[in-house]
Amino acid sequence: MKKRLIATMLVAGCWGMTFAQTKVIAHRGYWDCEGSAQNSVAALVKASEAGVFGSEFDVSVTADGIPVVNHDDDIRGHVIETSVYASIKDLTLPNGETLPTLEQYLVKGKSLPDVQLILEIKPHKQEANEDRAVKAIVELVKKHGLEKRVDYISFSMNICKELVKAAPGAPVYYLNGDVTPAELKRLGMAGLDYHYKVLQKHPQWIKEARALGLKTNSWTVNNTKTMQWLIDQNVDFITTDKPVELKRLLEQE
Ligand code: MG
Q: Which of 91, 119, 137, 150 is spaced 20 to 30 Å from 144 by Cα?
């Protein structure tokens, strides 16, 4: 009788404390391995093969409106925002791939149904180009029927606001670390995606976000101790350059 009571109490206690396990997002795909490169199509495929929740990548729009996948605002000195696509399309990544368009990336992503596409829209110098980028990107996602497969992130508040308008219901996360969970909720966002130092400075934001029904993500976490701290805080996602190591750490939980 006593044993059964203890067992019941343990189960009830566990239920009361259960949180969904933290999920792994590969930062710029899984690139730190043979044949891969940051933001390459190969990095998306390798993230999927590694069995992580999501694969992150960065998107900017060319002067003639083509969204391309690249981290910096330039590729080999060609500023994407002011270059026509034809002038940069043959430039190659360190693994030999040519600069991927978002459309090529989405088509590949569609064939990898188990990996969520974490689409970062980079800030552009001209706000009008940010607005153009949002419109073109949301249209492409819709064209390929990937609305449920894409989470959007951006450092630009303008981009986040435009996304909330252009893609109602799509998860939008703000990256810049300077807005409270309550304000993000008011703006219609799905959650926050902040640098781990911001969350270490404001650990209450994780709880506040959860209480508001918002999700929490943190970047770019490559240190085991910091990963463990965030796991202990029950953040929803961790974005890392070391997805396989983080996955292993979570499997030990
Ligand atoms: Mg990024």
A: 91
Tokens of 44: 């998306």
CA 55 to chain centre: 7
83 CA distance to ligand 1 middle (Å): 21
CA of residue 122 to ligand 1 center, whole Å? 8
Where would I find the H helices in the chain?
Answer: 2-17, 41-49, 85-88, 102-110, 127-143, 157-166, 181-186, 196-201, 204-211, 224-232, 243-251
**Could you give the angle at the alpha carbon of 173 between the alpha carbons of 67 and 97, nearest 5°?**
35
How close are the terminal C-alpha atoms of the chain, in Å? 31
From ligand 1's centre to the CA of 57, what distance in Å? 6
Q: Return the bridge partners of 172, or none.
A: 152
CA distances from 111 to 124, 196, 201, 227 (A): 30, 32, 40, 30
What CATH number labels 22-60+100-251? Answer: 3.20.20.190
